[in-house]
Amino acid sequence: MPSAATGTNSTFNTLKLSKDRLINTIHETAKWGAKGVWGPNPTDTGVCRLALSDLDKQVRDWFVEECKNLGCTIKIDQVGNIFAIYPGKNDGLPTGIGSHLDTQPSGGRYDGILGVLSGLEVLRTFKDNNYVPNYPIALVNWTNEEGARFPVSMVASGVWSENIPLETCLNTMSIDKVPVSFGDELKTIGYDGAVPCSYKENPLYSHFEIHIEQGPILEHENKKIGVVVGGQAFEWNLITVTGRASHAGSTPMDTRSDALYTASKIIQLAIETAKKYDGLATVGTLELEPKSVNVIPNIVKFSLDVRHFEDDKVAIIMKEIKEQAEHICQININSKKAKPLSVNFDNLVNSKAVKFHPNNIATVKKAALELFKPEEIREIVSGAGHDSCYCNTRIPTSMIFIPSKDGLSHTPEEYSSPEEVDNGFKVLLNTIILYDEARLQGSV
Amino acid sequence: MPSAATGTNSTFNTLKLSKDRLINTIHETAKWGAKGVWGPNPTDTGVCRLALSDLDKQVRDWFVEECKNLGCTIKIDQVGNIFAIYPGKNDGLPTGIGSHLDTQPSGGRYDGILGVLSGLEVLRTFKDNNYVPNYPIALVNWTNEEGARFPVSMVASGVWSENIPLETCLNTMSIDKVPVSFGDELKTIGYDGAVPCSYKENPLYSHFEIHIEQGPILEHENKKIGVVVGGQAFEWNLITVTGRASHAGSTPMDTRSDALYTASKIIQLAIETAKKYDGLATVGTLELEPKSVNVIPNIVKFSLDVRHFEDDKVAIIMKEIKEQAEHICQININSKKAKPLSVNFDNLVNSKAVKFHPNNIATVKKAALELFKPEEIREIVSGAGHDSCYCNTRIPTSMIFIPSKDGLSHTPEEYSSPEEVDNGFKVLLNTIILYDEARLQGSV
Peptidase M20 dimerisation domain: which residues (chains A, B) (predicted)? Predict the structure, then answer.
């Protein structure tokens, strides 16, 4: 049991919990995509389960079957989001618990998966205890949160919240060697549902999500639970540097327009500019042409992900990077004989800072304080984007974080201990109970 | 006729030349791979004709047919090198004229092609004039000079000169999306010949090659002909930087081990170090993992091509780059919280500076001086590698250069004017005649 709770919810205390079932389920379902051995134990691997792949289909089929066995009604919408509706005593919009079962190509066992399976453990606990909530609970598996295979992250919650057009999602092409469309792959795995993908036509009352922090703050400060109050602003750009291809052996240095040399200076600049303003910058993809050892590259395209807790700081950082990048292209290799290069910024995503709903934040905080000491809990801002950020644009939403070892995620070594997973689950369970009770009282 | 020749070879003057046939052949054969429009004229494109592709087969079939029609005997060796032997009055090893018909993916119309087709024009001119040389002439199309599709450049002359094992060549895998072996593709296009690929078993007496300069020196100095006396030393390395993947949104800057940030610093360092020593450095390929917009790369692999006219300078440059790269990995992002990265240099090619044979150089110089003013001719060192460099390890070899517009090559805009092409051909023709006559006199 958690240490020295400051108060307890009477309902939570009446429920018998199944020790280790959640962590075992996390490890059992990792068989669909287990990859990237990092330690001696059989569970010391990551997971590679790209959205709408055969492995994604397999874990979805299992998930649907499990939820049906618990008495849930299954609704699959037009972009493959799965809503498993656990019935309540009263009619009313379901309270949502959601996250995602897809992963990065070199992903871990927890990112997203923790959220869906913790939600499942909530429903399993209700079922074991014959506990019927006041209102239905919708456990949601959002499609393609990662944006790793179909390169628009959180696209399916984006469509549901009507921030992204349905057609944009369905037409998104995969980054596979032979690209396929989101819509075609959805059909291939049989998850092209008929339910409208819309918060208006298939509504939720509210949305909660538990997730690993994916950063080092909780671990460094020795906190058990993060009460997530919002998310960072971020901007994605595709940057193209254009120079001139020429032979590596016969083109003097002072006449080159080397697109990779210039790009390497812009990459350094971008990272150091973000750091200067206490923001974050990451170049995660880079392609060049013509891709031959002895040819000076003429085109380099790379992504730039810039984040900050404050919207205006993202704008300041991007402005400075753009101005300095132009300057770098002009000076080139500091030779009058060399032609300047050109640089183009193509904005892909522009996401404002997120402020979660006060009622949801308060419920999570109350639920955590009933189970842990105040000094074990911390308000925190999410560094990463989540489906909850799109949900929050339409319905009251908030999140719960548990610590990530060494702050790592999107890597096989991503790890949270069984105790940390259990702590988080208990806070989620208590949150759902408290929120469901508050709904009956009309206070949320 | 060339301007103000300082002396003339009596044989050269007896031959009737076919105006424009060579340049027309260059443009006609560009149909096999024409790509990369850069101007309004139908000939304003580059050529993409990767080694052992269907397009390579088509140009080879045409080449073999043309040579047969001139009375040549065709020999195809184990790596697909084509030797078209034009008979002479006397037995004896053939004098070689060689270059290559394959191109870079974004190649031009002249690199390599000029050499083979200028050789063909020599044979056509002999045939037109019923001129029989003293000794046979072997016109050689060397396979996969570029190393663009099968990433070992000059591999086939390397095998012939016994600098590269036959099996290494045949087992080289292509960089195609679905990689195939050199040996399998050779069979597919029907150029897996039975003639041993060896300078011992299929010898040449000597080797000449005409090529575009691929650099700006002749153009800048207003020279018509480069008498090539040797080639730069160069070294190829595959550099791997290993850091740690983590989430772009939730990993603080001062805890990152960003492999691309570090690689970008090493790329800059390498280029600036080579420049400092009057050498050349080029990073032409770069791959990273895990290749996701919002994941910090953990692995970046890139090629580094370093060249210098002096062997020891290449070693000095590489030593400094390696030491400094280690240092860059250690300091990482100047934060005590961040782990150092690691860097590994995998040496792919190490090629000493080339000194061509004095007899061949002297013959080319004499041939040029008979046709052009001394101030229109210049000794020059090749920046690029050529099949002639491998030939030179076993038989007397040298090369002739003509100017490249803006010094460009390995790009569709690569250009030499019809007059420059014609100038070069005349020097080649005169060289072959003079050398053939010198052989009879026993002076070479």
Answer: 238-328
The per-residue pLDDT for B261 is 98
Nearest CB among A104, A280, A407 relative to B292 is that of: A104
Among chain B residues, the shortest Cα distance to A278 is held by B253
Q: Which of A172, A228, A237, A282 to mutate to test the interface with B (most CBs of B within 10 A)?
A: A282
Cβ distance of B284 and A295 shorter than 8 Å? yes
Rounded to an integer, what distance in angstroms lies between the CA atom of residue B175 and that of residue B148?
8
What is the CB-side half-sphere exposure of residue A265 using CA atoms within 13 A? 23
Whole-number Cα distances in Å, A24 to A16, A107, B268, B376: 17, 19, 48, 81
Q: Is the peptide bond before A2 cis (omega within 30 degrees of 0)?
A: no
Cα gap B400→B398, rounded to integer Å: 7
Beta carbons of A286 and A301 less than 8 angstroms apart: yes
pLDDT digits (tens, 9 = 90+) for B126-169: 999 999 999 999 999 999 999 999 989 899 999 999 999 999 99
Residue B95 has pLDDT above 80, yes or no: yes
Q: Is the pLDDT of residue A3 over 80?
A: no
- Region B281-288: mean pLDDT is 97
CB-based contact A267 B289, cutoff 8 Å: no
CA distance B438 to B444: 6
Contacts of A396 (CB under 8 A, 6+ apart): A205, A206, A207, A357, A359, A360, A444
pLDDT score at B8: 65
pLDDT recorded at residue B183 = 98
Per the CB < 8 A criterion, the answer to whether B38 and B45 are in contact is yes
Runs of H (alpha helix) within B277-401: 311-331, 358-369, 387-391
Antiparallel, parallel or unpaired: β B206-212 and B286-289: unpaired
Smallest Cα–Cα separation from A225: which of A361, A98, A104?
A: A361
Report the residue from A255, A265, A286 with minimal CB separation from B286: A286
Look at residue A7 in the predicted model and tell me its pLDDT: 59
Task: For residue range B24-75, list pLDDT tens digits in order.
Answer: 999 999 999 999 999 999 999 999 999 999 999 999 999 999 999 999 999 9
Cα angle: A339, vertex A341, A343; to 5 degrees: 165
The pLDDT assigned to B334 comes to: 78
pLDDT at A1 over 50: no
Mutate which: A149, A211, A221, A264, vs B, most B CBs within 10 A: A264
- Helix or strand or coil: residue A327? helix
Give mean pLDDT, residues B360-381.
Answer: 97
Half-sphere exposure of B407 (CA within 13 A, CB side): 27
Residues 31-50 of A with CB under 8 A from B: none
Highest mean pLDDT range out of A410-414, B150-154, B204-208, B293-297? B204-208
* CA–CA gap between residue A109 and residue A44 (Å, rounded): 9
User: Considering only alpha carbons, which residue of chain B is nearest residue A408?
Assistant: B246
Partners of residue A260 in chain B, C-beta under 8 Å: 267, 283-284, 286
Residue showing tokens 């060049």? A288
Q: What is the ipTM of this complex?
A: 0.77
Of residues B26, B405, B23, the one with CA closest to residue B216: B405
Residue to mutate among A48, A339, A410, with most B CBs inside 10 A, is A410
User: Where does the pLDDT of residue A2 fall: very low under 50, low under 70, confident under 90, or very high at 90 and above?
Assistant: very low
Q: What is the DSSP string of B56-113?
A: HHHHHHHHHHHHHHTT-EEEEBTT--EEEEE--SS-SPPEEEEE-----TTB-SSTTH
Nearest CA to A393 out of A355, A435, A363 is that of A355
Distance from CA of A317 to the nearest CA of B (A): 15
Whether the CB of B269 is below 8 Å from some CB of chain A: the reply is no
Average pLDDT value for chain A: 95
